[in-house]
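Please describe our next protein:
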Amino acid sequence: MADIIRLTAAELSEKLGSREISAVEATQAHLDRIADVDTDVHAFLHVSDSALDTARSIDERRASGEELGPLAGIPLAVKDVLVTTDMPSTSGSRILEGYMSPFDATVVKRSREAGLVLIGKTNMDEFAMGSSTEHSAYGPTRNPWDLGRIPGGSGGGSAAAVAAFEAPLALGSDTGGSIRQPAHVTGTVGVKPTYGAVSRYGAIALASSLDQVGPVTRTVLDAGLLQDVIGGHDPFDSTSLTDIWPSMADAAREGARGDVLKGLKVGVVRELSGEGFQAGVQSRFDETVALLQKQGAEVLEVSAPHFEYAVSAYYLILPAEASSNLAKFDSVRFGMRVQPEGGGTVEQVMAATREAGFGPEVKRRIILGTYALSAGYYDAYYGSAQKVRTLIQRDFDAAFAQVDVLISPSAPTTAFKFGEKLEDPMAMYLNDIATIPANLAGIPGISVPIGLAPEDGLPVGLQIMAPVREDARLYRVGAAIEALLEAQWGSTLISRAPALGGK
C-alpha cells in the first residue's frame, strides 16, 4: 500500500496501463490510507461506498482491450462545493447537510467519463468563505505537516488529502486563492485556470465572477493531466470560453525537459513581497529568484500600484455576489427548514432557518454584501470596487507588456496555528493578499512548492501568474521550476513530509 499511495498520478497511470497495478488495488490502497489517517487529518466529509465497484469496472474495460484515457483507474478526491449524484454535497454548511444533487457538476461528469475513480468529498470552509478550513460546519481539517496547524482554505480538505497521500489527485475551487493558498501551506501544487477555461456548472456558487475550478496535485504534470480532463467549453456554463485549448500535460512535459527558463522574462511584483511577509517565506522566494537568474531568466521588478487595494475591493465584490447567490438557501427552494415554535410566516421560517443553518463567517459576509448592494450605497461601495478591479486588470496588462510571467510568494506566511487568526477577520483576509489579484483579473495562476521555511520547517509556495488564456505557459514554467528544484533537492518536497503519527 505504501508504495502505491506515494506514486504520482503520472506514475500510477503507467503502472495501470501496463497492468502492473489494478484500479482496484490503487483504489483500495487509498481507501485504506483514508481509514488509517483521516481520523487525524479530517480531509474528507464523505467517502464513497461505490469506489471499488467503479475501479472494478475500469479493470474489466482495460482487460477487454478498450482504449482508456491516461487517468482511468486513478482515485480522485472532490471538494464538497462540487455537486455529485452519489454522495452528499454540503459545501461545508449545515444548511445543506445531507443534500443529494440530481446531477453531477460538469468537472465531475468529465472525470467519471475519463475513468477517474471518485473516492470522496473533501472538507472546506462553509460556502468557500475562509482561508483555514476552520469555518467548516463539520470541524476543521488539519495540516499533514503539523496537525496543530491549518491546511489553508477554503479548500484545505483537498490539499490535505493530497499531502497526506489519501488521494493522488483532487479538485478544488479558487475564488480568491482557495486552491493556491492551501497548496502553499501543504507543499502541494494548486492551479487556478483562466476564468472560463474550466466549467463552473455544478459548483455551488460563492462569487460567480471570481470562482474557478481547478486541480490540486503533487506535481505540475499531474495538474496538467487533470486540467486536460476537466477543461474546455461547456454549453451549460454561460461564462465558459469557447477556446480550443492545448494539452496542459504536454506543456508540463515540455517545461520539465526543455530549456524554457533561459531568456524568460520574469516579473517580481513589488507589492507582493517584502513588508508583511514572513522572513522564511521571503528567503525561500529570494533563493528561487536567484536560481531563475542563474538559469538564464531575466528578472525584472514590476510595480502594480493598485494591488494594494485588491483585498478591499475583493471583500466588497465577493460579499455582494455571495449575498445574491446564497439567497436561494431560504428553507423553500434549497436547504434545511427550521420551524419557529408555534409556527410562523414564510419570512419567520426563512429567518429561523438561515440563523440555524449558516455559520458566523457566512452571516458576516451576507450582511456586508447586502449592505454594499443596498440603495444609496451601491455606487459608493460595490461600484467603486468594480472600478478598482478594472485598474488591477490594467496593472496586469501593463506588467505583461514587459514580462512573460509574474511571480510572488503564494501567501505571506506558512501554515498558522488553529485559532491564531480566527477572532480577527482582517488578519485572516490578508492571508490571501497575494492570490486575490489573479481572481479579480481572471488570469491563471499556479502555486509550486519551493522549500521549507527555516524558522518552522513548513512548506512555502511560489505563485506564478500568466496572461489570460496562457495556461500552457504557466504549466511550462511551473514544471521547469519544479524540475530545477527537484534536481537540487534530490527528491520532491512532499516526499519529505513528516509521518502522521508514525503512519
Observations:
- The chain has one domain: 2-271+401-496.
- The two ends are 12 Å apart (CA to CA).
